[in-house]
């Protein structure tokens, strides 16, 4: 019996109530099995007065086949959280279960089922790409062929290049190759596309999507909000150790206002007629820059354009955008929220 089957048996036995239904990731209505469950997770660095609470009591539930994105401001506690989920660190409070097991204590059973792409890989740079991957796969219980994995991350033509001669983006792809070489059920991707050019990034997204379609459960951290918008089924935004928003992208941006920006002529600001009645609120500065914040983007945009035509006022640099993850994120980052507070929707 392999370590993997042993771990699965343990999962079924220990987590029968959580796991109700196993298997299918296809679009059936049945609820999917919980792969990661986190309750009241705390992680504190140091002791006593100088200690720092980096993760201040968070709850998470990540289901099989889901791509979950953990986002947050710098120092929000994402890596501190991820390290606990990955079984690399012990929590100082709360409980974490991965496949129904404690990822730290039962690491021997959990590790063969997960792939990790950390922020830095750390291979000796005089190894070639293929040597490094072969070295890594020799530690796995059921690795895929090195050539196949290198082709999957577009590194086949760099197989015999030393790591010292690879570009930053190519090293990142080697890190990804290591993470997926064992065909993990659960994949942690810590900022997987940092340093990749736009084309490589798009290919990495394709690969991540394909892994997800194959049923891999993926936990992703990223500073690229478009990456989360494109890939994530569910996401959570952390700020100062707490989760301040969570849900699908649509749920997270729901209720967040849209923005319309335009510049009015500056040569004769006094002549500009009063703005039309709008649903949202507007500000206008001395340079004629107008910003409307509104829950009714279409109505207010139409009102502004009709007004501009009727009054003969030229609008330059017109920009109208619905609420996005970026606008939610910027509000959180700039809010000065204290732990425990939730930003107003
Ligand atoms: N080993 C450590 N000892 C003490 N404090 C730490 C340690 N590691 C992290 N911290 C602190 O814990 C907080 C959370 O750090 P963490 O690295 O988890 O944040 P993050 O969300 O991953 O940030 P980033 O996006 O900048 O990588 C920060 O205030 C950081 O300074």
What can you tell me about this protein's structure?
Keywords: Antibiotic resistance, ATP-binding, Nucleotide-binding, Transport. Residues 36-265 form the ABC transporter domain. Residues 1-17 have a biased composition (Low complexity). InterPro entries: AAA+_ATPase, ABC_transporter-like_ATP-bd, ABC_transporter_ATP-binding, P-loop_NTPase. It is found in: Cell membrane. With 345 residues, the protein is α/β, with parallel strands linked by helices. Helix content is 32%, strand content 24%. It contains 12 helices and 13 strands. It has helices at 3-14, 16-19, 78-85, 107-110, 129-137, 146-152, 168-180, 198-213, 225-231, 249-253, 297-311, 325-333; strands at 34-45, 52-63, 67-72, 93-98, 114-117, 186-190, 217-221, 234-239, 242-247, 258-263, 281-284, 289-294, 316-321. The strands form 3 sheets. A 6-stranded mixed sheet has the order 5-6-7-3-8-9, sandwiched between helices. Strand 1 (34-45) and strand 2 form a beta hairpin. The longest helix is centred in the middle third of the chain and has 16 residues, at 198-213. It is globular. The N and C termini lie far apart (52 Å). Residues 1-27 have low confidence and may be disordered. The structure holds adenosine-5'-triphosphate (ATP). Residues 45, 52, 54, 72, 74-80 line the site of adenosine-5'-triphosphate. Adenosine-5'-triphosphate is lined by residues 45, 52, 54, 72, 74-80.
What keywords describe this structure?
6-stranded mixed beta sheet, 13 strands, 345 residues, 4-stranded antiparallel beta sheet, binds adenosine-5'-triphosphate, 32% helix, alpha/beta
């Amino acid at each position: 019996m392999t370590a993997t089957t042993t771990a699965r048996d343990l999962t079924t036995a220990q987590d029968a109530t959580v796991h109700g239904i196993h298997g299918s990731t296809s679009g059936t209505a049945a609820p999917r099995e919980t792969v990661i469950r986190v309750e009241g997770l705390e992680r504190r660095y140091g002791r006593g007065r100088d200690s720092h609470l980096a993760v201040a009591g968070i709850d998470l539930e990540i289901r099989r086949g889901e791509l979950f994105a953990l986002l947050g401001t710098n120092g929000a506690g994402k890596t501190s959280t991820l390290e606990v989920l990955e079984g690399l660190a012990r929590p100082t409070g709360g409980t974490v279960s991965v496949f129904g097991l404690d990822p730290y204590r039962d690491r021997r059973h959990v590790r063969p089922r997960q792939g990790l792409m950390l922020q830095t890989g750390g291979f000796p740079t005089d190894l070639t790409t293929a040597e490094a991957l072969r070295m890594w796969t020799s530690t796995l219980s059921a690795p895929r062929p090195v050539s196949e994995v290198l082709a999957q991350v577009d590194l086949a033509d760099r197989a015999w290049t030393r790591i010292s001669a690879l570009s930053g983006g190519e090293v990142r792809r080697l890190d990804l190759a290591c993470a997926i070489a064992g065909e993990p059920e659960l994949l942690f991707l810590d900022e997987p596309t940092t340093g990749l050019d736009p084309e490589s990034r798009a290919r990495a997204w394709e690969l991540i999507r394909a892994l997800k379609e194959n049923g891999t459960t993926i936990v992703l951290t990223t500073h690229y909000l478009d990456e989360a918008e494109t890939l994530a089924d569910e996401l959570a935004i952390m700020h100062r150790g707490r989760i301040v928003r969570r849900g699908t992208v649509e749920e997270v941006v729901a209720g967040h206002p849209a923005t319309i920006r335009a510049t009015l002529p500056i040569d004769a600001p006094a002549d500009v007629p009063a703005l039309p009645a709008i649903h949202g609120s507007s500000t206008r500065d001395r340079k004629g820059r107008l910003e409307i914040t509104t829950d009714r983007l279409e109505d207010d945009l139409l009102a502004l354009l009709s007004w501009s035509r009727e009054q003969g006022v030229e609008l330059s640099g017109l920009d109208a955008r619905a609420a996005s993850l970026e606008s939610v994120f910027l509000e959180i980052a700039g809010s000065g929220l204290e732990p425990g507070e939730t930003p107003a929707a």
